[in-house]
Design goal:
Layout (H helix, E strand, L loop, with lengths): L16 E4 L9 H9 L5 E8 H6 L3 H11 L4 E9 L10 H12 L7 E6 L1 H13 L5 E6 L2 H7 L4 E6 L2 E8 L4 E5 L8 H6 L2 H10 L1 H15 L3 H21 L16 H10 L6 H18 L5 H14 L12 H16 L5 E6 L2 E5 L4 H9 L12
Parallel strand pairs: 1-8, 2-3, 2-4, 4-5, 5-8
Antiparallel strand pairs: 6-7, 9-10
Helix pairs in contact: 4-5, 5-6, 6-10, 8-9, 8-10, 8-12, 9-10, 9-13, 11-12, 11-14, 12-13, 12-15
Length: about 400
C-alpha cells in the first residue's frame, strides 16, 4: 500500500533598504533602532566584518563603531570586529568565509545575534554566505559602501563564492534583516569604482524603465563628474527597480530559468574570470551589455537608433567598451560563458536581449556565429559601426 503526506506552506519575508548618512554617528539611531525592533528589550550581540579597503579609506571606523555600540549599549553588544580583504579576492576561495565562521564561533554569535557586514559587493556576498550557513542562518545587516553594492549587489537576496573558475558557483539565498545605505561611504571611492557602479543602473533601465534610461542619458556627464544629487537618484531608482523585481517578479529565489536582471552578465562573468578579475564587475557588465545590444541589433531585434544611444550613454558615463586583454582562448573562451550560463540556470538557456530601450525579450538559442561577430565589434582598435 502506498502512503503519502504532502503539505504546502509559505513564509512571508520583509526586505528593507534604509537610507541614511553617517550611520555610526552616535546621534544617528538607525542601526540601534533596527536591532531594537528585531529583539526588543534585549541587548543583541553584533559581530562586525569590515572590508579592508573601507578600513584604509576610513581609518577611524573601528573606533567609531565601538563608540556607537557604547552609546547604544542598552540595545547593542559589539562583541567582535574582523577585517577581511576587499574586492573579488574575498570570494575567490572559501578561506575568508572560514575566517568569518571562526569569528562567529569564537564570539558565540547565535541565531539571535547579528553579523553586520560593511564593504563592497564581493565582501557582502562572502560574509552573507558564511552567515547563512552558520547555525543554519544567522541574521545579517548589510552596510554597502560602493555604488555597485548600494544599488545592486547588496540589494538582492543572494550570497556566494566563486569556485571551479565560475562566478558564484557556491551560494545561498537569504533575506538580510536590513540593508543600510550610507551615502558618506561613497565620498572616498576611486573614480573608477564610482563609474563602474552605474552599470547596473543602466542594465535595469534598459530592460525595465525607459524613463529611467532617459534620466541616465540626460545626467551621464554629471554622474561622471560625481554629482551627489544625480548619484543619489540613480541609486534609489535602481535599488527600487531591483527590489520590485525580487518582491513582485514571482521568482525571488530564481527557481526558474529566466533571469532578466542578469542582462549582459553571461559575458560579464566570463570576462571577469578571463581577465583574472583585473576589471571591475561593473566594467565587465558594461561590455557584456554592449555585446548583447550589438547581438540584438545584428539579429534585427533592436533598431540602430537605440543601439547608438546606448553606446553613447555608456561612453559618456566613462565606460570603455573595448574588450580587455584576456587569458588564453580569447573570443572562443568568452563564448564558453554561454554554456556555463546555461548550466547556472539549470540546463535551459535563457538570455535576455533588447527589443527597444525599456523592453526586453528572452531567447533560448544563440547563433554563435552572429554572437562571435557581435563580440568582435569590440576588439581593441575597432570603431563601432554607426550605419543603420
Amino acid at each position: 500500500m502506498k502512503r503519502r503526506i504532502e503539505k504546502f506552506f509559505s513564509v512571508p519575508f520583509r526586505h528593507r533598504l534604509l537610507f541614511t548618512q553617517d550611520v555610526f554617528n552616535p546621534g544617528n539611531s538607525l542601526l540601534a533602532d533596527v536591532v531594537g525592533e528585531y529583539r526588543p528589550d534585549t541587548r543583541v550581540k553584533l559581530l562586525f566584518v569590515v572590508d579592508s579597503g573601507v578600513m584604509q579609506a576610513h581609518p577611524g571606523l573601528e573606533k567609531a563603531i565601538r563608540a556607537y555600540c557604547e552609546a547604544h549599549a542598552s540595545r547593542l553588544q559589539g562583541t567582535g570586529f574582523l577585517t577581511v580583504p576587499g574586492g573579488e579576492a574575498a570570494k575567490q576561495s572559501e578561506d575568508h568565509a572560514q575566517e568569518v565562521l571562526k569569528a562567529i564561533d569564537r564570539h558565540k554569535i547565535c541565531r539571535h545575534s547579528i553579523v553586520v557586514v560593511i564593504g563592497g559587493g564581493a565582501v557582502i556576498d562572502m560574509v552573507g554566505y558564511a552567515a547563512a550557513i552558520a547555525h543554519r542562518g544567522v541574521q545579517l545587516i548589510r552596510i554597502p559602501t560602493t555604488v555597485l553594492a548600494q544599488n545592486d549587489a547588496a540589494v538582492g537576496v543572494k550570497n556566494g563564492l566563486n569556485h571551479f573558475g565560475k562566478k558564484n558557483f557556491i551560494g545561498t539565498f537569504a533575506v538580510p534583516l536590513a540593508i543600510l545605505n550610507d551615502a558618506l561611504f561613497l565620498n572616498t571611492l576611486e573614480d573608477r569604482d564610482w563609474i563602474a557602479g552605474t552599470a547596473e543602473a543602466v542594465k535595469v533601465a534598459l530592460i525595465k524603465d525607459a524613463e529611467f534610461f532617459e534620466f541616465l542619458e540626460a545626467n551621464a556627464a554629471a554622474l561622471r563628474k560625481r554629482s551627489p544629487q544625480a548619484m543619489d537618484h540613480l541609486i534609489y531608482e535602481c535599488a527600487e527597480l531591483h527590489m520590485d523585481h525580487i518582491a513582485q517578479g514571482g521568482d525571488p529565489f530564481e527557481s526558474g530559468s529566466s533571469r532578466p536582471l542578469d542582462f549582459g552578465h553571461w559575458a560579464a562573468h566570463k570576462l571577469e574570470h578571463l581577465t583574472g578579475y583585473n576589471i571591475r564587475h561593473g566594467e565587465a557588465v558594461a561590455i557584456g551589455m554592449a555585446i548583447d545590444v550589438e547581438y540584438s541589433y545584428r539579429i534585427g531585434l533592436l533598431d540602430n537608433e537605440d543601439r547608438l544611444r546606448i553606446y553613447d550613454m555608456l561612453q559618456t558615463l566613462g565606460f570603455h567598451l573595448e574588450l580587455p586583454e584576456m587569458e588564453a582562448g580569447g573570443i572562443d573562451a568568452l563564448l564558453d560563458g554561454i554554456e556555463e550560463f546555461r548550466e547556472h540556470l539549470g540546463g535551459v538557456l535563457t538570455i535576455t536581449l533588447l527589443e527597444r530601450i525599456g523592453r526586453k525579450r528572452d531567447v533560448h538559442e544563440i547563433d554563435l556565429a552572429t554572437m562571435r561577430e557581435a563580440i568582435s565589434a569590440f576588439l581593441p582598435g575597432r570603431r563601432i559601426n554607426r550605419a543603420s
